[in-house]
Sequence to fold (391 residues):
Amino acid sequence: MKKKSILLGVTGGIAAYKMASVASSLTKKGHEVHVVMTESAQEFISPVTFRAITGLPVETDLFSEPEKHEVKHISLADKTDIALIGPATANIIGKIANGIADDLLSTIITAITAPVIIAPAMNVHMFNNPIIQDNLDYLSDKGYKILAPSEGMLACGYVGKGRLPEPNILVEYILKGLTTKDLKGKKVLVTAGPTKEEIDPVRYLTNYSSGKMGYALAKSASYRGAEVKLLSGPTSLDDPIEVEVEKIKSADDLYEKVINQMEEFDIIIMAAAVADFTPENISENKIKKNNEDYLDLRLKRTKDIIKEISKNKDENQTVIGFAAESKDLIKNAREKLEKKNLDMIVANDIKNKEIFGSDESEVIIITSEKQIDVSRSSKEDIANKIFDLLK
Ligand code: CTP
Fold:
């Protein structure tokens, strides 16, 4: 993503400190972060913190002398690619909803034409107050993006909905807001992670898949405007924002879920590392050693899910598979592309076990017409490359 100008509006809530992390993360990604603070915000966190993090002046006053001859609220509003107000108090929400512009932040927001995200944070009763809810609904109707506060312990001692979402989530919404929506109108199904094949009540067979590639695909598609569903095996990853996530366990479970809903999707991506074999029988009781030196575990083949998808798909659906190979990478991947009747296959050389769990990978993307080598890059960049090639 090219360098963007991001405006962070900080108002007077206890969660104002979280915005320092947001500013830091966005600055580290190379963006220009302009922080505008209300008077009450400065009771919670100092402008000096933001100035040091962003390396830019922090604006607090509508009438302070501008560095250049410019009308400050207009020039800041004009250069903004996206704005986020967080924590957004009941006061700023009420002001924006009613067109009140009586300080620098409310004036800039009134003048801004770029997307504005509002992240309310306040006491749960204040948040549930019908006037606040009406204001939020009104703002949502007018095109402002309202983030639902998260639940948990609030500064006032109450437990409930009112917390500012964590900084990494706020950053995700900002980055998503800055992404071109070239997959708008598309519905994408992604499978990710390993499967878990039960042996007995305490044991199972699985593999090294971390799920990171599938999650990166789900995130990239969602950033680009697609409606995304992620069927995920057990992973330690956070759910991508605005993606419907359904957990799966075994290869059989994944098969049922994919086949039952595949017709709803335009693009289906099987990034999951599906077990090829599963125990023939799941032992009801824990398998005992009983002085045996060996255990015979009979495994049976699972269904090839992607092959089944290709058999049942219609001509408008695109099916993408992955090939994990430890030798003859391209030859084997090409064979899978053909045998499984796929539109695209992403070949991974797994001889280098380091790729498991890594944020980066090196792949070859193969279609019937093209073969593209993608040198070591982040799984997010690889995901974007895959969607670029579908265009
Ligand atoms: N796949 C699937 N169902 C299975 C096994 C694999 O849908 N039971 C999908 C994977 O999600 C991947 C593609 O098939 O998109 C290729 O998976 P891979 O493990 O590389 O190949 P296999 O078909 O299992 O063949 P082999 O194990 O012989 O390499």
